Amino acid sequence: MQNLAPIALFVYNRPEHTRRTISYLQKNLLADESRLFIFSDAPKTDEDKAKVDEVRQLIKEITGFKSVKVTERKNNLGLAESIISGVTQLVNEYDKIIVFEDDLLSSPYTLQYFNEALTRYKNEDKVMHIGAYLYNIDKKGLPQTFFFRAATSWGWATWARAWKDFEPDVDVLFKQFDQKKISQFSIEGTMNFWKQLEGFKAGKNDSWAIRWYASIFLKGGLTLNPTVSLVHNIGNDGSGVHSNKENMYAVQTAQQPVTQFPTEIKENQLAYQAIKNFLKRRKGSIFQRTIRFIRQKLGT
Question: Most exposed residue of 163, 199, 230, 289, measured as fewest CB within 10 angstroms of its CB?
């Protein structure tokens, strides 16, 4: 496979997570033919400096790729600005990109999947994002890969032609939503995507990902997803700046390559229902756990 996409890896202050993420990437088919670009954000506080330095020492010694280039930020950008600027830089130069953060364990076939999909759909304007993670949904009757509306951020890829439609201004995004679109955007209220967008507008989060999904959604775009996840997130252990302690998203990654891709560019309704059902169960489970927690605190 020629003209492989560059890999962008965004790291901060978690040396052990970073080490594991890189070790799994090194085991990928095509790793030794791929260019790796690592963006290391500067410490936000003096307390973060030692861990940031430890990560920076680690990433200086990486091998196993065609090339490795490290960018050490002089000032703390925060995750959103770091990712937006890094992705913009690389898609402008290479026309496409594969994106990882420092807490993602990949399947040996993840890079192969990304590059195959980037080549296959490069001229399909409606396809705007390729995701590697999928919830542990009911897979009965589903193909190996499918199109869906929402964009996942735990390992993903895109093209310059799609990224140019990224709208960072939340006010511009907000103006394009009505009640029907809010429901569609939030998978009929089963996911808190709209609350995330409201939270960003209110300054309660700094999510680039929710603005990227909103940009895709408002353009009528689609995302490609694997039925068996090609990434497992190890950051839901409370260690991340934007992560909670959570095990509902745990998955077993695919140990076979993806060989089938959809020819029809439209959302897969069976997958949509399976994801919606998973999210409904998740929402119910979170509600029950919250009630149990409150009762324990009140001693009732």
Answer: 289
CATH of the domain at 90: 3.90.550.10
pLDDT tens for each residue of 146-188: 999 999 999 999 999 999 999 999 999 999 999 999 999 999 9
Least confident of 106-110, 136-140, 211-215: 136-140
What is the rounded CA–CA span in Å between residue 77 and residue 199?
19
DSSP string of the chain?
Answer: --SPPPEEEEE-S-HHHHHHHHHHHHTSTTGGGSEEEEEEPPPSSGGGHHHHHHHHHHHTT--SSSEEEEEE-SS---HHHHHHHHHHHHHHHHSEEEEEETTEEEPTTHHHHHHHHHHHTTT-TTEEEEE----S---TT--SEEEESSPP-SSEEEEHHHHTT----HHHHHTT--HHHHHHHTTTTTS-HHHHHHHHHTTS---HHHHHHHHHHHTT-EEEEESS-SEEE--TBTTSTT--B--TT--PPP-S------SS-S--HHHHHHHHHHHHHHHHHHHHHHHHHHHHHHT-
Task: Indicate whether 42 belongs to any domain.
Answer: yes
In a domain, 188, yes or no: no
165 and 219 Cβ atoms separated by less than 8 Å: yes
Range of the domain at 250: 7-165+219-298
Instruction: Report if residue 172 sits inside a domain.
Output: no
For the chain, what is the domain count?
Answer: 1
Task: Look at residue 242 and tell me if it is in a domain.
Answer: yes
Cα–Cα separations (whole angstroms), residue 232 to 144, 181, 269, 292: 17, 30, 25, 28
